[in-house]
Specification:
The chain is of the alpha/beta class and about 100 residues long. The protein is built from 4 helices and 4 strands; from the N terminus they run βαβαβαβα. It has a single domain, classed as Rossmann fold (3-Layer(aba) Sandwich). About 45% of the residues lie in helices and about 20% in strands. The longest helix has 14 residues.
Length: about 100
């Protein structure tokens, strides 16, 4: 099982896809709010479309509008900030149960 967390605050949007493609993770933990161009929802949608890799969203934005917009990326789970290690492990387990692993 390979999980990648992309440091979104300084990686440009097109570099995110290159990292996701090169590293070939099974799952990406994606922050919904990103510094600079784009956002985590758009990045997760693009990564899903290009690679089939699904995401777990990490967010402090739990409002209905953000959740509805994020649903198009088919996230496996959402982590609401602040979250701990156990929440991350639970989201990852859920992701792999969803895949039947």
């Amino acid at each position: 099982m390979k999980v990648t967390t992309l440091p979104m605050s300084y990686i440009r949007l097109r570099m995110r896809f290159a990292v996701a493609l090169a590293d070939k993770p099974d799952l990406i933990i994606m922050d919904v709010r990103l510094a600079g161009e784009g956002d985590g929802i758009a990045a997760a949608c693009e990564i899903l479309a290009r690679t089939g890799i699904r995401s777990v969203f990490a967010t402090a934005c739990a409002d209905e509008q953000t959740r509805a917009r994020g649903s198009i990326a088919c996230p496996v789970a959402r982590l609401e900030k602040p979250f701990g290690v156990e929440s991350i492990l639970q989201a990852v387990r859920l992701a792999f149960q969803d895949r039947g692993e």
